[in-house]
């Protein structure tokens, strides 16, 4: 049987790497788009990348979703059955600094792929997946959020992603394209980018335990997130493209925790005894209550730092994945505790 061909924009990212593994296990031929960087950054997929001169089932192409002719040529050359658009400037905090670039990549990047598809795919055969996000709900009141909830993004990232959500739906309705959104809530893994809260906290606290760092500086400790495992969430991305009719789905765990819960859990799992206090400005900090490995009693191990607070914040995100459960047969199996344990074990092993 002829292999199905998938094209992944954003293959070098966290989800790109898990999705590639998953698609290869399903016997797909995968093309991935990587950006030109001054240092090679295919670390997340090196273990599955085969030399194109041996029997290849994974080929990487240079590309960037900010370049229409490149996007057009890649789709034309690879002739995929399925396209996964995971490419994005995906850091919400950074989007306040790089608002225009975030829009170019996270909004117009999607439009470029859809336009290329509209021009090239006359028979409407190619299926398109858009990596949408819970950030499009922002601080909307309709919790827990489902596919019918109102949108109220509060960052350049969330706003850019809302454009992509709508333009995907517009192209589906206007041109009968198979174009679907996965509205994914936060998902982490040992491959998570190092400046997202889960990975940042775990890396720093392991280093602090080993005496290689003194203090972990963080911003808002009271926002809540619905955290799942990336490995399970990419399976939902694939399932979304296996439906008869294109549709949009919320993918979440249905449970949420605060950033402080996350920090407390990591501290507990590393056997660090601690106490939270407040300074005169109201900034919170955690001190060690006893010596453990290289940590000294009374050492400030975690501290809030004004520079990590965002100009605006999404306070409380929790998703309702019942539509995905019913129609895709998808549900999360890895809970928050298991996710964090796996990430800690992996960090200690790396260390
Ligand atoms: P990630 O680790 O930051 O990966 C993003 C990928 O996009 C990387 O491969 C990156 O390449 C690539 N990229 C960035 N700008 C690009 C451009 N201009 N042209 C082509 N490629 C570009 O993100 P992730 O966690 O895997 O998330 C995957 C997608 O899901 C993203 O669109 C993200 O916004 C969305 N999402 C993520 C979550 C989550 O919690 N993880 C939740 C909801 C939605 P480099 O490696 O070169 O930087
Ligand atoms: O922040 C707070 C921060 O950057 C989580 C992306 O994958 O999920 C992710 O976006 C929370 C926020 O993820 C620090 O203010 C405190 O309230 O890990 P994060 P995010 O912003 O929720 C969504 C669904 C996406 O689509 C995005 O692509 O943690 N926080 N102190 C901090 N966050 C960071 N990064 N660093 C801190 O020092």
Name the descriptors.
alpha/beta; binds ligand F7E; 351 residues; binds NADP nicotinamide-adenine-dinucleotide phosphate; single chain; seven-stranded parallel β-sheet
Describe this structure in words.
With 351 residues, the protein is α/β, with parallel strands linked by helices. It is 36% helix and 18% strand. It contains ten helices and 15 strands. The strands form four sheets. Strands 3-2-1-4-5-6-11 form a seven-stranded parallel β-sheet, sandwiched between helices. A hairpin with a 5-residue loop joins β13 and β14. α1 crosses α7. The longest helix is centred in the first third of the chain and has 22 residues. The chain is globular. The mean pLDDT is 97. The structure holds NADP nicotinamide-adenine-dinucleotide phosphate and ligand F7E. The site of ligand F7E has 21 residues, from α3 and α6.
By DSSP, the count of extended strands is 15
Low-confidence stretches: none
Broad structural category: alpha/beta
Q: How many helices? A: 10
Strand content: 15-25%
Helix content: 25-40%
* End-to-end distance: 44 Å
Biggest sheet strand order reads 3-2-1-4-5-6-11
Major sheet summary line: 7 strands, parallel
**Bound molecule kinds, no repeats:** NADP nicotinamide-adenine-dinucleotide phosphate, ligand F7E
What is Rg? 21 Å
Overall mean pLDDT: 97
Order of helices and strands: EHEEHEHHEHEEHEEEHEEHEEEHH
| Overall geometric form | globular
Please outline the helices and strands:
Elements: E1 5-9, H1 14-25, E2 29-34, E3 58-62, H2 68-78, E4 82-85, H3 92-95, H4 99-120, E5 127-133, H5 156-175, E6 178-184, E7 187-188, H6 197-209, E8 216-218, E9 224-225, E10 228-229, H7 230-240, E11 249-251, E12 257-258, H8 259-269, E13 274-278, E14 284-288, E15 300-304, H9 322-328, H10 336-350
Parallel strand pairs: 1-2, 1-4, 2-3, 4-5, 5-6, 6-11, 7-10, 8-15
Antiparallel strand pairs: 9-12, 13-14, 14-15
Helix pairs in contact: 1-7, 2-4, 4-5, 6-8, 6-10, 8-10
This protein binds NADP nicotinamide-adenine-dinucleotide phosphate and ligand F7E.
């Amino acid at each position: 049987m002829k292999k199905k061909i998938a094209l992944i924009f954003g293959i070098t990212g966290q989800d790109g790497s898990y999705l590639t593994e998953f698609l290869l296990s399903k016997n797909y031929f995968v093309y991935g788009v990587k950006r030109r960087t001054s240092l090679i950054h295919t670390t997340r997929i090196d273990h599955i990348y085969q030399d194109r001169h041996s029997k290849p089932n994974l080929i990487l192409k240079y590309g960037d979703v900010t370049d229409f002719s490149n996007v057009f040529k890649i789709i034309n050359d690879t002739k995929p059955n399925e396209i996964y658009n995971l490419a994005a400037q995906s850091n919400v905090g950074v989007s306040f600094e790089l608002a225009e670039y975030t829009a170019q990549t996270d909004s117009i990047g999607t439009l470029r792929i859809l336009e290329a598809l509209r021009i090239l795919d006359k028979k409407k055969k190619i299926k398109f997946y858009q990596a949408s996000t819970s950030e499009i709900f922002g601080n909307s009141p309709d919790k827990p959020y489902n596919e019918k909830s109102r949108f109220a993004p509060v960052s350049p990232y969330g706003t850019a992603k809302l454009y992509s959500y709508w333009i995907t739906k517009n192209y589906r309705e206007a041109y009968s394209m198979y174009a679907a959104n996965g509205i994914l809530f936060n998902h982490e893994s040992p491959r998570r980018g190092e400046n997202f809260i889960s990975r940042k906290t775990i890396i720093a606290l392991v280093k602090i335990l080993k005496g290689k760092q003194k203090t972990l500086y963080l911003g808002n400790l009271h926002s809540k997130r619905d955290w799942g495992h990336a490995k399970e969430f990419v399976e939902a991305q694939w399932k979304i493209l296996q439906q008869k009719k294109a549709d949009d789905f919320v993918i979440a765990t249905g449970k949420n925790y605060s950033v402080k819960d996350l920090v407390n859990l990591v501290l507990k799992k590393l056997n660090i005894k601690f106490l939270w206090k407040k300074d005169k400005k109201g900034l919170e900090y955690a001190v060690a209550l006893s010596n453990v490995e290289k940590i000294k009693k009374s050492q400030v191990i975690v501290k809030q730092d004004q520079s990590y607070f965002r100009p605006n914040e999404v306070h409380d995100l929790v998703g309702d994945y019942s539509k995905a459960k019913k129609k895709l047969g998808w549900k999360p199996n890895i809970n928050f505790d298991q996710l964090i344990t796996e990430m800690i074990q992996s960090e200690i092993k790396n260390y």
